Amino acid sequence: MWTVIYIAPTLKIAERICSNLQTQGFLVKQRQANMAKQQYEILVPETELDDVKEILNDIIHASMS
C-alpha cells in the first residue's frame, strides 16, 4: 500500500524530492493533491516508510539551506 510521506507546495519541489528519493533507491510516486491549492503528494510503499523518513528530512533541510 502506498502512503503519503510529504505534501510539496509546488511541482518543482515535488519533482526534486522524488528524484532524490529515487536516486537513493526508493520507489516513489507523486500525484496532485485534492486541495484548493496546487500541491503535490509524494507517496512511498508502507514497507519503506521508516527508511524514507530519515532521507526525506535530509533532503528537505538541504533544500532550505
Proportion of strand residues = 25-35%
Q: Which spans have pLDDT < 50 for at least 5 consecutive residues?
A: none
The CATH topology label is: Alpha-Beta Plaits
Q: H/E element string?
A: EHEEH
Report the CATH C-level class: Alpha Beta
Radius of gyration: 11 Å
What is the number of helices?
A: 2
Please tell me the CATH architecture by its name.
Answer: 2-Layer Sandwich
Number of strands: 3
Widest β-sheet, arrangement of strands: 1-3-2
Give the termini separation.
Answer: 33 Å
Shape: globular
Work out the count of structural domains: 1
Largest sheet: 3 strands, antiparallel
Could you tell me the mean pLDDT? Answer: 91
Helical content band: 40-55%
Q: Given the helix and strand composition, which structural class is it? A: alpha+beta
